[in-house]
Amino acid sequence: MTSLQLKIENILDLKLEFNLWILLGIVQAVAAFFVVRYLVRKGKLSRTIEFDGSEIGIGPHKIKLKANAEDLRICYNLWVEMSTRKIGLPIDIERDVISEVYNSWYSFFGIARDLIKSIPVTKILQNGSTSELVRISIEMLNKGLRPHLTTWQAKFRKWYDEKIKSSDNAEKSPQDVQKHFPQYEELAKDLLYVNTLLVAYKDKLAGLLQ
User: E-assigned strands of the chain?
Assistant: First the structure.
């Protein structure tokens, strides 16, 4: 009987402790929400940044954004993804493997699209800066990444996969093999151009977070 009572008491203590941790987490989340909302209303979380269209490839105009908390969340998530992948770093055409660059770009395209889709429509409708930031991000994907990937990725991968397995290239590095792609110069030029757009875009996102 004593053993049964001890077990019941232990279970009750465990449940009580577990519930207290849940309650504490809820309180912290609510407190954080009101702190952020207060700071936004007071302008403490606002960031103003100017997007130069010619710099990030969305047209010959400039857009000035005053970011709110939702904008900062979007910017932070996009910036982290770009900063931890090859997509947000300058490409070294002599050392980088193009197929690996494409892997990074392709993955980022899907992740960025999902991040944008996760934004509530009400946020986009209510906040002009959020709507503008989403528009810029979509244009960066559609006018920056998509055209290059559509034009070059499948064509290059098919050629590269065949060549890298060839016995003639057994002793060559991937970097040496890729230079023999029939349209290498044209591909490399466009690759580096898109890379400069993406790096500039990442830097602009970082500016909103400072």
Answer: 47-52, 62-67
DSSP-derived secondary structure for 23-77? HHHHHHHHHHHHHHHHHHHTTTT-EEEEEEHHHHTS-S-EEEEEE-HHHHHHHHH
Q: What contacts 45, CB < 8 A, 6 or more positions away?
A: 36, 39, 67, 68, 69, 72
The answer to whether residues 108 and 197 belong to one domain is yes
Only one residue has tokens 């559509």, namely 150
Note the pLDDT of residue 55: 63
> How far is C-alpha 140 from the geometric centre of its chain's CA atoms?
12
pTM of the complete model: 0.69
What b/e sequence results for 178-190 when a residue is b if at least 16 CB atoms lie within 10 Å of its CB, and e otherwise?
beebeeeeebbee
pLDDT the model gives residue 123: 80
* 54 plus 22 within the same structural domain: no
Do 185 and 83 share a domain, yes or no? yes
